[in-house]
Design brief:
The chain is an alpha/beta fold. 38% of the residues lie in helices and 12% in strands. It has eleven helices and ten strands.
Length: 307
């Protein structure tokens, strides 16, 4: 493939540029290209000497960039990638460049190329969930929702022994569904997320707001049964109950497994479960809500189970 030099660029530009608009589904031109065909097409272009690829965040709502990034892998630094920003897009050029790079970055492929051996990356909550579903307390259940209650709030969905990632890889992220409209501000930019109410730091902060005391969660749960503690405990239970009841209403899993530091609070397995059941849509709810048995090693075991 003939290439031409371009001023200001350290890579030659092939005389043919690969247009990426049809390697992703779109309302304008349909979904004629599967992810497998998209990857094969990009690799064929590379083999043919094409060094320039044209994409846009608007192609398939970003799916074009994701598929291009996956297909290029560690070779993305060897080619030229042009992109476009819509005139009415609420993005600066710098933020758009950052988002473009993010969609093209396939870290596991970069590490595989650098280390010369296969590398698997996975969310910690998914690792926790797959370990408990495979070798832990939930190993006899086909549909498992694994919950991380710790510094943050995460979740993993396991169906028939496999991690369910979802279309955009956010399946299980129950920590960022809205618990209270216009509630506490979350680091994700939204307000009222579950994480801002029942994560460890959130619970400690709420205790401080009630009592003026700065204490760890383990200290708080040992507090005397006075009015301050009862208020803190009931609000925690109400938020915990609503958040998990929403999960059951939507997913209806065979079992829920709790993990993370907050999962060590014993009243979650008595009054906590009762509070969840009271808020579930069905009158027949009997979803088991269980404490993990693999402890802090669950995530490591799950990582070792990745294929």
């Amino acid at each position: 493939m003939r290439s031409v030099p371009c001023r200001g660029l350290d890579k030659p530009w092939s005389v043919i540029t690969f247009g990426c608009w049809q390697i992703a589904p779109s309302g304008g031109w349909g979904d004629y290209c599967s992810p497998e065909d998209a990857e094969a097409s990009v690799k064929t272009a590379l083999e043919g000497g094409i060094t320039a690829f044209d994409t846009a965040e608007g192609y398939g709502d970003g799916e074009s960039e994701r598929r291009l990034g996956k297909a290029l892998g560690s070779q993305k630094d060897e080619v030229l990638i042009t992109s476009k920003i819509w005139p009415d897009a609420d993005l600066t050029l710098a933020s758009y460049q950052e988002r473009l790079e993010g969609t093209l970055r396939a870290l596991d492929r970069d590490l595989t190329a650098a280390l010369g051996r296969p590398v698997r990356l996975q969310n910690d909550a998914n690792c926790f969930a797959i370990s408990e579903a495979t070798m832990g307390i939930a190993k006899n259940y086909p549909f498992v929702f694994g919950v991380i209650l710790g510094t943050g709030i995460g979740g993993g969905i396991i169906i028939n022994g496999k991690i369910h990632h979802g279309r955009t890889n956010i399946a299980g992220e129950w920590g960022h569904h809205t618990l209270h409209q216009n509630g506490k501000k979350c680091y994700c930019g939204k307000k009222g997320c579950v994480e801002t109410y029942i994560s460890g730091p959130a619970l400690e902060q709420h205790w401080k707001e009630i009592t003026g005391k700065t204490q760890s969660l383990s200290e708080i749960v040992k507090s005397p049964m006075n009015s301050d503690f009862l208020k803190w405990r009931q609000e925690f239970l109400d938020n915990f109950g609503t958040a998990l009841a929403n999960v059951i209403d939507i997913l209806d899993p065979d079992v829920i497994v709790l993990g993370g530091g907050v999962s060590n609070i014993e009243f979650l397995y008595s009054d906590g479960i009762k509070n969840v059941y009271e808020k579930v849509f069905s009158d027949l709810v009997d979803t088991p809500i269980l404490k993990n048995i693999l402890g802090d090693s669950a995530g490591v075991f799950g990582a070792a189970l990745l294929d």
